[in-house]
Amino acid sequence: MATLPDVKARTITLESGTLPHGGVTGLALHPSNTKGSGKWVLRFVSPITHKRRNAGLGSYPEVSIAQAARVALDMRSKIERGIDPLEEKEKEAKVLEVPTFQEASKLLHAELLPSWKNDKHGQQWINTLEQYVFPLIGKLLLNQIQPRHIADTLRPIWLEIPETAGRIKQRIHSVMAWGWAHEYCPSNPVDVVQHLLPPQPSKSIRTKHQPAMPWADIPQFINTHFKNGNKYDVTRTMLEFLILTSARSGEVRGMTWPEVDFTEAVWIVPAKRMKAKLLHRVPLSKRAIEILRSQQGLHKELVFPSPRKQKELSDMVLTSFLRRVKAKSDTPGRVATAHGFRSSFRDWCSENGHSRDLAERSLAHQVENKVEAAYHRTDLLEQRRPLMQTWADFLQN
Question: Where is the Tyr recombinase domain (predicted)?
Fold first, then answer.
């Protein structure tokens, strides 16, 4: 069949109807409302779905008869090789839309945020990625990220702060799983990243050997770094209060004024802020009360707010301080951690003959034996008062 002549194409109208190209099977010029203009369409059967499909090749006369033929012949060649040209085009377009890891993380975070009851968790979720992940792989497209990229991101903290590394690994996995579900990447590289990283020590070993300052060294540490401080040095003030109360970092950083009862000299930490989700009462020593009094007026809600943003401080504030002053620990090559002061207190209790029950209640540890727990329901608040005052007196020596 002869190729569609140009003179015939220039006179195409709705009345004349569709004009087959003639030189390429399925290629035809479909008329538009204006005489001498139309749209090129290639009709074919997909070699993949075996369904009829229409591929638009542009408008006539902008796309000439010869140009339409060249494009159509190329598409026909792909069809003969088992390729659906429209599906291939869709995939190419999608490749151009692949988000970066940072973009994908923020999209997923926005989707997950309404399902989280704890706003703080939602903020921490994205904050950890911004701190540890975005600087290294944030600008990479999801389909560019390989297991080695994930391993290189996690390696600096994999053994140093394994709990944080584990949480970040889970969050990276969630982002990559989201990308896989949206067909932005062929697989999830986090699934095999463990083969590129050394084994982490077990949780029991990490807990037991978390760097802690020997209890006998703490009074000198406090005398050296806290004695001449001022109330506006929130980091030092907060750390001293943490040591005095043997509380967890998150409990102190998130402490609010409504939790403090000055009349009864007790700090009541609500269940929602406790690790075991049980209300915990902390008897306050004289020095702890002095610290709280010095903080009054700095913030209407938080006791130890961030000086600049007036928000809850990050755990890294305490970590950075301890690293900066090279706080001595019982672990060679590492400085003491904020959480380690709880271990120091526990060791002091044991080595100075204080009751195990009082020590465990002071740390808000739960009774593991279910039978014992069923009968032992008191938190021994009044019995713990002299213990915490004795601890405070020791620290002030």
Answer: 208-388
Tell me which residue range forms the domain holding 321: 215-395
206 within a domain of the structure (yes/no): no
Contact in structure between 309 and 292 (CB atoms under 8 Å):
no
Which stretches within 283-395 are classed as H helix? 286-295, 315-324, 340-351, 356-362, 370-375, 381-395
Q: Which residue has the tokens 């209407």?
A: 300
Q: Which residues of the chain have pLDDT under 70?
A: 1-2, 92-96, 202-209, 228-232, 367-377
CA 124 to mean position of chain CA atoms: 6
Instruction: Give per-residue pLDDT as tens, 72-114.
Output: 999 999 999 999 998 888 776 665 588 999 999 999 999 999 8
Per-residue pLDDT of 275-309, as tens digits, reads 888 999 999 999 999 999 999 988 889 999 988 77
Q: Answer yes or no: are the C-beta atoms of 260 and 292 closer than 8 Å.
A: yes
Do residue 129 and residue 250 come from a single domain?
no
Q: Single out the residue of 321, 296, 291, 304 nearest to residue 392, CA to CA.
A: 291
Asked if residue 295 and residue 345 are part of one domain, the reply reads yes
Considering its fold, how many domains does the chain have in total?
3
Residue type, 124: Q
The answer to whether residues 362 and 236 belong to one domain is: yes
User: Are the CB atoms for 284 and 252 separated by under 8 Å?
Assistant: no
At CB < 8 A and 24+ separation, what contacts does 306-311 make? 306/234, 307/232, 307/234
Which residue stretches of the chain are H helix? 6-9, 65-80, 85-96, 101-112, 119-132, 134-137, 147-158, 162-181, 203-208, 218-225, 234-245, 249-253, 286-295, 315-324, 340-351, 356-362, 370-375, 381-395
